Amino acid sequence: MSIDLAVIGGSGLYNFPGLENASRHTVDTPFGPASGDVVMGDFAGRKLAFLARHGESHTLPPHRVNYRANLWALHSLGARRVIGVNAVGGIRADMGPRVIVVPDQVIDYTYDRYTSFCDVEGAEVRHIDFSEPYTESLRRALIAAASKADIAVIDGGCYGATQGPRLETRAEIARMKRDGCDLVGMTGMPEAVLARELDLEYACLALVANFAAGCGDEAEISIEEIFAHLAAATAEVPRILGALLKS
Ligand code: HPA
Fold first, then answer.
1. Mean pLDDT score, 52-67
2. pLDDT band (50, 70, 90) for residue 119
3. So what's the pLDDT on residue 109?
4. Domain 5-246 belongs to what topology?
5. Which of 186, 191, 234 to mutate to test the pocket of ligand 1 (most atoms within 8 A of CB)?
6. What are the sequence ranges of the domains in the chain?
7. Which residue has the higher pLDDT, 218 or 149?
8. Cis ω before 165 (30° cut-off from 0)
9. Which residues 6+ apart lie within 8 Å of 181 measured at CB?
10. Is 162 in the pocket of ligand 1 (CB under 6 A)?
11. Which of 59, 104, 211, 239 is least surrounded, with the fewest CB atoms within 10 Å of its CB?
12. Helix (H, G, I), strand (E, B), or coil: what is residue 82?
């Protein structure tokens, strides 16, 4: 079956609203199980595959997600274009709660994750170019789709990927800001690099759930507020992706 678009849903997006004639696919991968079944169906007149990154009941923390299995599963089912939907904290002043960003750069602060398909016995070592971590044509298409759907998104920004599952300290965020990060999230890497290793087109739709530590007015970040903001931003995702599929 050909797939027009694959979507990896992050926190707050555990199934894809409006997906019709859905079928579930459990994929055996050389890297173990994916986060769950890939759900394939019709959306906006095209074929969409959906995978919940943290599992459909959010049981996998960011550092335990089997990113390799997830990308492998989507690729083996025939996906060639992938959108990663990621909850993030905003560092830049204009990236407050409910803002949607299509980042163009990444800094990876994660550790102890499998970051390549080639760290398997006997696999050929491949050094890939990652100067531009996201597929520019897909980023452009996503931004154009949001505009067509009349949904504001910010074009560009640097995504800093942290280990989680805890949020960061103020000092950590201050350092990330000095480094040039505009957003902080826990799942953007190694997903983006693994997609590149499989020659998948990949872009990120980052949904701002909160101001990162020390960036907003509040002394503490409320997890309830994070999920409320996330629900509001997540509600816009199907319309953006519907416009992308119709373009
Ligand atoms: N930090 C890291 N990941 C996040 C945050 C944050 O503040 N908010 C949502 N995901």
1. 96
2. confident
3. 98
4. Rossmann fold (3.40.50)
5. 186
6. 5-246
7. 149
8. yes
9. 91, 107, 158, 159, 160
10. yes
11. 59
12. strand
